[in-house]
Amino acid sequence: MSKHLEDKNLIARWMDDRLSNEEKEQLKESGELDALKTVIDDIDTWKVKPFDLEAGLAKLKEENKTVVPLKKSNKNWLRIAASVAILLSCSLLWYFTSTSSTTIATKIAESKTVELPTGSLVELDAASSITYDKDDWEDSRMLTLTGQAFFNVTSGAPFVVQTPTAQVSVLGTQFNISTQEEEFSVYCYEGKIEVSYKNNSEIITKGQSVFIVNGKLKKDKHQYLSPEWMNGLSTYDRTPLKTVIADVKRYYNVDVNLPQKYDTLQFTGTIAHKDLQQTLNTIFTTMEIKYELQEGNTVIFE
Amino acid sequence: MGQEPSVCEESVYNNIYRTHAEGLRNYLYYKFGDMQRAEDIVHDSFVKLWSICSTVVYKKVASFLYSISRNLMIDTLRNKKVALKFEKGLVKEQDNEDPYFKLRTKEFQLKLESVISDLPEKQREAFLMNRIDKLTYKEIAIRLEVSETAIEKRISKALIKLNSITEIKDFSI
């Protein structure tokens, strides 16, 4: 009946006064939208309940007095990340009550490949998760990530990854995001992405990466064609032992209670994700720390 | 990159409220049909914004507000039937020579209100944000983080539906 009106969104453009002269003439002659014009003109006079802006602002001011905003402080960005993670998981709870909300998570020592509704791929590393709304997906590709994942994104609607620390916006590309407790990093392997953290953002392309150092975004170069962890490896360069052990606990089901005095020792080297003995050996022997791997997968120290 | 305004600064925060609060409330009302809940959610979203203000990038504030407020609307409201109510202008004097006089009656206005309320959620919200809030297709696309073409498509579908009830021969109260 009126198929031609939907073609190329003609009827929406008609209402927006964005028709070509030819299209305008055709509609004027057929008169098929004259009645609708009368109706739209009427709807244009309708009003919704008035909004009391100043009253709303005053009410907010009152309530915000009891809310302490997280301060921007270099020393405290870890605390900020943790608090945002809590708040984020609160909003995730509401997300869970939505029937179209989808969460995919990996356990320790597990990795998973996820195909998103419009063909983008996500490789989830161990102890990580993504959550998204599958009904909204075609129009707005927004998901939340905890842990680490590699993304291969098809072009289409804006693709946004929200992590407890920062936001990453994408334009059809391949990249890796790691959001561990002490470190946040994004590596780009293809295409172009934008990373937003606090009041700054950086755009990076193939061969570039972004880290958060002292509460600020820092750009760097890299030589990788794909993430190392997908090849079962992790490379460290003067990384605090605490962080290395945190990774070991994700890839292996092992209990390691590293004595605090060793936390900040720096480790440089590569470990594999497949052999626990070898990994422990690599880490501790080079650092000359005596350890013992007991039955039941517990590591103890002197 | 230049220094962006800080959301934690009171004047910036207040300005964000002045710019976005009303539009956000209307959007939630059009979407879920509950005015009181919409106003409560706007308030809660802004409280949340204040508490994590140091982690929200200024230029992403609108998308933050819209997505967090969607998350805060309780699921039970999602499938509830929506019955929107608008304040309408005075009905013009009945003029029998006007070929469209049937479209200007109070009865038809109520039918229109009901048909709009019955539109699929996404079509309804886009149409009303354009007609009642006077936002351009582009502005709507930015707030909802979809393409402008997607908005055009939704509005087209809404208009086809409205057009079908304004056709005089199909008209019946």
Description:
The complex is a heterodimer of chains A (302) and B (173). Chain A has 302 residues and is of the alpha+beta class. Chain A is built from eight helices and 16 strands. In chain A, the strands form three sheets. In chain A, strands 1, 2, 3, 4, 5, 6, 7, 8, 9, 10 and 11 form an eleven-stranded mixed beta sheet that branches. A three-stranded mixed beta sheet of chain A has the order 13-16-15, with no helix packed on it. A two-stranded antiparallel ribbon of chain A has the order 12-14. In chain A, a hairpin with a 2-residue loop joins strand 10 (208-213) and strand 11 (216-221). The longest helix of chain A is centred in the N-terminal third of the chain and has 21 residues, at 77-97. The radius of gyration of chain A is 26 Å and the shape is elongated. The radius of gyration of chain B is 19 Å and the shape is elongated. Residues 169-173 of chain B have low confidence and may be disordered. Chain B starts with 9 loop residues before the first helix and ends in a 7-residue tail after the last helix. Chain B has two domains: 10-77; 101-170, Winged helix-like DNA-binding domain superfamily/Winged helix DNA-binding domain (Arc Repressor Mutant, subunit A, Orthogonal Bundle), CATH 1.10.10.10. Chain B is mainly alpha-helical and 173 residues long. The interface between A and B is large, with 66 and 72 residues.
